[in-house]
Amino acid sequence: DIQMTQSPSSLSASVGDRVTITCQASQDIRKYLNWYQQKPGKAPKVLIYDASNLETGVPSRFSGSGSGTHFTFTISSLQPEDVATYYCQQYDHLPPRLTFGGGTKVDIK
Amino acid sequence: EVQLVQSGAEVIKPGESLKISCKGSGYSFTNYWIGWVRQMPGKGLEWMGLIYPSDSDTRYSPSFQGQVTISADKSITTAYLQLSSLKASDTAIYYCARLRRGWWNFDYWGQGTLVTVSS
What whole-number percentage of chain B has pLDDT above 90? Predict the structure, then answer.
């Protein structure tokens, strides 16, 4: 099974800071990676699909990049409403098998 | 409007079984996989399995194979997650979610069902 290693597990940054989260796959997953945001007490929400595509309605300060085994999720200018836990999720095979990364909790310094 | 509405919170004794429901509306229920995701208290998301309601084709995560049963009744647009021989460590929020074809992400989620296993 493919393992997803996400880092860091938590971070604290100031409003306006650039925040970067990485996700490493245990084998090549091409571009088959999604990113979610989960706010406390809420269900997750998908932000990025296929590594770098922004979901409709998601602010442009969120972005993703990468392919193969190394992926990056960036918030270009952290806002108070971005306090949440962020997860990567890969898929392989059809119908897919899915794996989530361990999550990164982001809060405001 | 696409909606997934799950059954309510449950408090269950160890050793008992439970079936959680997830009713879909606002879209063609038989044309999308439905997945189940577990979130233990203070922990991350774990994919449990998928079902395709059109033919009940079911796939399980190796971590949950044999531990849970996923089913669906397309006549009432409802998917189910059966949990058996529950232990305290099964205490978690269980989410259902619709899997979007092509990009294979969960685009719509239920509100989650909190299951508490306690004597």
Answer: 97
Question: Taking CB atoms and an 8 Å limit, are B47 and A99 in contact across chains?
Answer: yes
Read off the amino acid at residue B28: S
Residue B24: which residues within 8 A CB-CB, separation 6 or more?
B2, B3, B4, B34, B77, B78, B79, B98
Which pLDDT score, from 0 to 100, does residue B19 have? 98
Size of interface A-B (CB pairs under 8 A): 62
pLDDT of A92 over the 90 cut: no
Q: Do B46 and A95 touch (CB under 8 A)?
A: no
Of all residues in chain B, the one with the smallest CA distance to A6 is B44
Q: Which among B34, B105, B36, B109 has a CA at the least distance from the CA of A34?
A: B105
